Amino acid sequence: MNSLLLECAGLDKRFGGVLALAEVGFSINRGEIYGLIGPNGAGKTTLFNALTGIYSCDAGGFSFAGKPLAGLRPDQIAARGIARTFQNIRLFGNLSALDNVMIGRHVRTRAGVFGAILRTRATLAEEVAIERRALELLAYVGIAARANDVARQLPYGDQRRLEIARALATEPQLLALDEPAAGMNATETLELKKLLERVRADGTTILLIEHDMKLVMGLCDRVLVLDYGRKIAEGPPREVQRDPRVIAAYLGGAEGAASS
Fold first, then answer.
1. Exposure winner among 88, 180, 229, 239, fewest CB in 10 A?
2. Per-residue pLDDT of the chain in tens (260 residues, 90 and over written 9)
3. Contact of 215 with 41, CB cutoff 8 Å
């Protein structure tokens, strides 16, 4: 099997006169945890939105598992094997944790409108399987005891875990996480790190936007750094951390680095 999973080349995205992404190119190998970092406003979430079909790019393109994905809708991209979470939690707040994961699982269902209306035997069997898998995923992320709790009433860290469980329910090849550690305390972040290491060990590649540099340095195999929509560095975390362009982007140049 080809080790290359995602390949992007020359991605541009404009919002009016603002160039949010400028000729961004990179690739992710199967089995990697690939980090995406940069100062606020660097274009990280814009890139995520382009990869997952929320935005269409003005130039460039990307392929996933050898097939072009540019121009597809978010649901089509999810069906091809890319799942994501959001910087701001987007759960169905009034539904249970179990229902949230079951909704994610429906991207892999086979029953059509006919089966859903008539409640055929195949449809009922599939619903049982969906519920069983959703319960397994809640256990996998460590919140099985919360299965029947309303999502909006869960503690913040558990809501983050629930989002990951819902994304995993789509059976992704690539799990794209937008700041999953945001708002977590040190203990929650450590548990998140262990969970993501397990996800990778179980065969899912991870693309991670994160501001917690300790988490990035301890988790990612390679890191891409954006600044003002442009790629300024890429490589192993420790190497990228020492790059003068990265220091300048985060600290405001040599003067800022010297005074920090």
1. 88
2. 569 999 999 999 999 989 999 999 999 999 999 999 999 889 999 999 999 999 999 999 899 999 998 789 998 999 899 999 988 888 988 999 999 999 888 766 665 444 445 566 766 777 888 999 999 999 999 999 999 999 999 998 999 999 999 999 999 999 999 999 988 899 999 999 999 999 999 999 999 999 898 999 999 999 999 999 999 999 999 999 899 999 998 866 433 333 32
3. no
Does residue 158 contact residue 124 with C-beta atoms inside 8 Å? no
| pTM to 2 decimal places | 0.88
> Position of tokens 């993501």?
196
CA 177, chain centre distance (Å): 3
Would you tell me how many other CB atoms lie within 10 Å of the CB of residue 50?
25
125 phi/psi in degrees, rounded to 5 = -65, -40
Paired residues of 8 in beta bridges: 26, 62
Collapsing DSSP to helix, strand or coil, 237 comes out as helix
Per-domain residue ranges of the chain: 1-81+174-196+206-260, 91-171
Report the distance separating Cα 43 and Cα 73, nearest Å: 21
What is the DSSP annotation of 1-38?
Answer: --SEEEEEEEEEEEETTEEEEEEEEEEEETT-EEEEE-
Distances (CA, A) of 61 to 13, 187, 246: 11, 39, 25
